[in-house]
Please model this.
Amino acid sequence: MLPTRSSLWRMLVLFIVLQLAILGASRRSSVVASASNQFNPTMRPIPNGQSITGTWDTELANELNTPGTITDLVFADDGRLTIMGDFNYLNGQLVNGLASLDQQGVWQSYGLHAEESGAVATAAYYHNQLYLGGSFKHLAGTPLNGIALWNGTGFEPVGSGISYDTGEPARLNQLEVMSDTLYLAGNFNRFNNQLTKGIIGWRNQQIIPLPDHPIAEVSQMALANNRMMITHVYPGKEQYSLSYALLQNDEWINPPWPDPIQNYNFDLVFAGNDSFYRPIFADSSRTMSQLQEWQNDDWTNGISTSLQLSYMSLTQLANQQMYVSDSQALYQLTSDAWQLVNLPMQIRQIKTLANHNNILYLAGDFTLNGQPSSLVRWDGTQLESLATTIRYANVASLGGQQGRPIALTSDRKPLISWSDQKLLSWHNQSWQPLLHKITPSSFEVLSVDDQTSYFAAERAITTTTSIARNLWQIQPDVSFSDPLSQSATISTWSISGTQLLGNLDGGSLDGVIKLDHGNITNLAHNGGSLGWFDTVLMTDNQLYAVDPSSERGYWYTYFKRWNGTTWYEITTLGIRDSQKSLQIVGWRGSLYFLDHDQLCRFNGESCEVIATFDQVPNVLVADDDNFLYVGGPFEHVDTVATGTLARWDGTTWQGLAQPANAEISHISVNDQHLYIAGKFTHVGATPSLGVAALRFGASEEAYMYYLPQVVR
Model:
């Protein structure tokens, strides 16, 4: 029997209701999943019509990462271990720089936000409660001033926190417990609204004052046998003017000054075997060769072993065995001499040591049994991995083509001042390495449109060939081509619309060139007044050059203009150097630049403030003449809530409909795709660790309904 028309309509209505129920359930489940996550986007969504919409690439996820850094290990009396540092994920769990391991071997996170990774510098268990210190102003959404108490379910302030009465940033460097008192040491001169001198005691919710001593800031604190030794800065002195001070019998004592002074590292002091130790420099390269011990009111050379340590961490086990590490080796003190300990793992870096119940804990970057590890424990025989951490990669430059980001990562080598730089392209669901260089030189990725990207260098470099060039084009198949067929001694590069501008010195293309889809045009000569490192900008066919030099908080910037025959200086401005480099672009006939927390327009003689951000931005780029983009840790532009990326069309500011949950440091954009890099872990609800790619257009949250066709 065929259904009647009324029954068909009932079936149709029932089907629609079921579809809506399924849709509602899927939406509810995604909300629950988001609530259970800890990425915590810090701003509410932008209203429709005022936001930048598009679809984030979900496949990027956490693929571009680097090993995290654990900077401190603290134990409670019951054996609970708390670690802190600069890491986002621990064993695949999102923790953002703070986690604890209980006696059952389970890691606990504390709900820190992405931007708070690395904010906690020190911790201590006092009366079986966890206290945390650093330079943070909030943790997990709770307003704080450099010190916090974990009450078991959330963070609480400790008094009114630390501060400087001058308003400059304050930082808690170390927390320690001695004689039932919690001691705070760092860079501050107020605690709980009372004047201090960089170190103070705290007991029963009250400040415990210390004897008077000329202390401005405390770098490090060590405790031994109810005595305290600190390294500190005298009031009014520069940061490098450090000294030691010893607190015993409620009195400060100044240890004798060493001779010659330059042989000693005043930053470090260690405690062990109820005594204090300090490192001695071996030579002018400032490597540390041995430790002096504080005995009989003086420093003595009791340990005579030259280790040539570039970095030092020290700890003592319960049986009075002392261990010291540099960045890549562990040593044990045996018969007043240091003996190398051969651990059965590959060591790339040791960051810190700690001990508990006669077991040694090492944090760093290791490979154990073929697997990466960031934290191991060693009982003298067995070595066990406890955690592997990762964080966002250090992206130094960013581009992209055809929806695939291209990232240049840069990491300082621990023993040299050069950088380990890698050029990678997202391709076929993985990051494909294009180039690897360990060099002091700087490189950058320049993407001028959705199809064309370049890899530029200040000085000529080789890629996959033996030919050295200042500029290489990255082809869609991620091979390199040579667009200039020549090299220069020095070059600087900038994007103008969909064209590339270069300032070249020392080659046949000497002067300013324009590269436009393979066509090379000479725009101007050096004229004797264009500097080697001047950045050339063009807007409305007018050429400008800017030459910034950093001087005491300012980019002392010379502005020049090309009149068709020569370069002439327009004016000089002092632009506050809050960014790593001067952020300036040409857009709609004018030059725009970031000056601390402001976006300014150059009017030919001075600057006009266009907008003010609630925090200092990091980066400014132009998308041809369409938009200006600004990225940073801010959330508001003037009174507009934008999140950490803001777009300006000349009239209105917009933010992302699905924003990044922490600051943005790099932007590359064209009319089809937006690429960002920074300290975020998510964009909207999409996991994307430090790098994300957005395809402009309709939101990814689109649904299609299929209704049964009703036929008479």
